[in-house]
Design goal:
With 223 residues, the protein is mostly beta strands. Helices cover 9% and strands 57% of the residues. The chain is built from 1 helix and 12 strands. The strands form 2 sheets. Strands 1, 2, 3, 4, 5, 6, 7, 9, 10 and 12 form a 10-stranded antiparallel β-sheet that branches. It has a single domain, classed as Porin (Beta Barrel).
């Protein structure tokens, strides 16, 4: 994941350097940002972590549950409303897939959490002025998600998670204006506000008062 991000970052830096300091400029999609509405889709990757809040001293420092993160996948749509030259309102409904494992320290017992979320962010995108075919931006807002793997209504499950969750998001990215479309790689952090744990009958999790997801998304948007 880190190597992949470094490669994308180097590509964006090189592209931006060429656009700012290069020679003769060819302006691609010159009128793209003058549209009031624009549409697109995104593909990307994610990695999810759990942040635990313990309810007693049963799990002191050094004995916290160990999280084993994996690489997941994102896919979704983009609806963009232009508010002015530097500000856009965006709706980005999509689906994310991920698996997280956690285990108590000093044991080999592993609990696998498979998650499929319908993820619906409403975001404000603040952009710098366009420089040739390059425009950096920051993005932030609120989102809700529906956990299709929650098991909230299944009393036989050891871990039951809430179906509906709420998050705030912040991120950075760049718009790269290519000949046929606008390509926007971005890096975003997603932080859960509510307690996701509905109920647990597992002895290992008896000391857990709350579980919240933190995630990192790398998205590639095509408009």
């Amino acid at each position: 994941m880190k190597k992949f991000f470094v490669i994308v970052l180097l590509f964006c830096v090189q592209f931006g350097y060429a656009q700012i300091f290069g020679g003769d400029k060819i302006i691609n999609n010159e009128n793209f940002d003058k549209q009031q509405w624009s549409w697109g889709y995104y593909l990307g990757f994610n990695t999810y972590d759990f942040k635990f809040k313990y309810n007693d001293e049963a799990t002191p420092n050094g004995n916290d549950l160990i999280i084993e993160k994996t690489l997941g996948f994102n896919v979704g749509l983009v609806g963009n409303l232009r508010l002015n030259n530097n500000l856009d309102l965006r709706l980005e409904p999509g689906v994310t897939f991920n698996t997280r494992n956690f285990r108590p320290p000093y044991t080999q017992e592993v609990y696998e959490i498979n998650s499929t979320y319908v993820h619906i962010p409403l975001l404000l995108k603040f952009s710098a002025d366009r420089n040739n075919n390059f425009k950096p931006f920051v993005v932030g807002g609120l989102s809700t998600s529906i956990n299709l793997s929650s098991n909230e209504n299944n009393p036989d499950e050891q871990f039951r998670f809430k179906t509906n969750n709420y998050h705030y998001e912040v991120g950075i990215g760049v718009d790269l204006y290519l000949y046929y479309f606008k390509f926007s790689p971005s890096l975003r952090g997603v932080f859960t506000i509510n307690n996701e744990l509905f109920e647990s009958t597992n002895e290992t999790a008896s000391s857990i008062d709350a579980m919240r997801s933190n995630a990192v998304f790398i998205n590639f948007t095509f408009q």
